[in-house]
Amino acid sequence: MLSVSASTQDNLERLGWDTFFSAQAADHPGLIPARVSRPDLNRYHLLSATGPLVGLLPGRARSAGQSKADLPTVGDWVLVSPIEEGQEDADAVPTVLIEVTLNRKSKFSRKEAGERYDEQVVAANIDTVFLVTGLDDNFNVKRIERYLLLAWTSGASPVIVLSKVDLCENLPPRLDKVEKIAMKTPIHVVSATNGQGMEGLREYVTRGKTVALLGSSGVGKSTITNYLLGHDHFDTGAVREGDSRGRHTTTFRELCQLDSGGMLIDTPGMREIQIWADQETLTASFSDIADLALTCKFNDCQHHTEPHCAVSKAIATGDLPQARLDTFRKFKAELTILTARNSHQNKASKRPVKK
Ligand SMILES: Nc1nc2c(ncn2[C@@H]2O[C@H](COP(=O)(O)OP(=O)(O)OP(=O)(O)O)[C@@H](O)[C@H]2O)c(=O)[nH]1
Ligand SMILES: [Mg+2]
Ligand SMILES: [Zn+2]
């Protein structure tokens, strides 16, 4: 164990430090733990027990990384060493060298935007993800289903946040649609402009806990973050008239500490959220379909025209929406391509397969 003073220990725990990380740090005596609050182009803004630091990553770490997903990202814990020379200005934020990135407890990933089949880690070491969707004209249940699958893959607990309830004239049918696909995920209906339901979100942002806000542009992620922080740290931007879509106001990911000791990670609205998951999580995310399939006559029933198919029956009676089955099939197809591409890339690169 590192020998640290009580107040240092307290500050670290407020940042989310626990035995999962201290056990790893024990192998690297003398290095200082810090958490990535904001990755920049060539440097990393860090938070440590003694305050902010600026971390530099040695070139060798960049080239040794098998994929971009291995490089430090927002929420990661790193171990650093001080850089002695060249720090003339005593008031400047100390610059340090990032020596080690600790294994992650959880990570929210998606397939990198565009053609490449690479993993992009959006945020690391998060306890809860707020999947934010506006109850305005930009409301979209399919998008929530997609985010939910990624959240279940992440190792963090998802929470569905339906924002802008002050703009919603007919809540019950929308809420009903979300409840049908939520699979018991907690749902919070909020307005960050009039405060409705906002206190309920605080229970997730307690001392040492990290919450990441995810969702399309304009759904109100930064407005919610500012509300919980108690001041306007992030810029917010008006949405387009007509379709209520945002204008990509937030352009970087940043972890901020609340006075309560919890942390929020605000992220830029995602244009595309392509799946990064595995078959097991897909089945678990669609446990309603999996449960029904257990009672289909054939074990390998595809729920098309087979006799005694419990899934088809549930669709006929309206117990299972057709759209739900369609989404499941679409995700399954995307996952099949992803898995095939990944195994192809791994073979082609002849590198050891990643953990
Ligand atoms: N009426 C109403 N407007 C809201 C609410 N929350 C956010 N807004 C407005 O919606 C617009 C977009 O909010 P942002 O917080 O910038 O949205 P964002 O999700 O951070 O968007 P990006 O940074 O582009 O991803 C702003 O004009 C906010 O004032 C709400 O609860 N009610
Ligand atoms: Mg924003
Ligand atoms: Zn069937």
Structure description:
By secondary structure, the protein is α/β, with parallel strands linked by helices. It folds into 3 domains: 6-101, Nucleic acid-binding proteins (OB fold (Dihydrolipoamide Acetyltransferase, E2P)); 107-266, Rossmann fold (3-Layer(aba) Sandwich), CATH 3.40.50; 279-349, Probable gtpase engc, domain 3 (Ribonucleotide Reductase Protein R1, domain 1), CATH 1.10.40. The protein is 31% helix and 21% strand. It is built from 11 helices and 13 strands. A 6-stranded mixed sheet has the order 10-9-8-11-13-12, sandwiched between helices. Strands 1-2-3-5-4 form a 5-stranded mixed β-barrel. The protein starts with 5 loop residues before the first helix and ends in a 6-residue tail after the last helix. It binds guanosine-5'-triphosphate, magnesium ion and zinc ion. Residues 293, 296, 301, 303, 306, 309-311 line the site of zinc ion (ZN).
Number of strands: 13
Protein structure class: alpha/beta
Largest sheet entry: 6 strands, mixed
Indicate the radius of gyration in whole angstroms: 22 Å
CATH class of the largest domain: Alpha Beta
Order of helices and strands: HHEEEHEEEEEHEHEHEHEEHHHH
Which strand-content bin applies to the residues?
15-25%
The name of the CATH topology of the largest domain is Rossmann fold
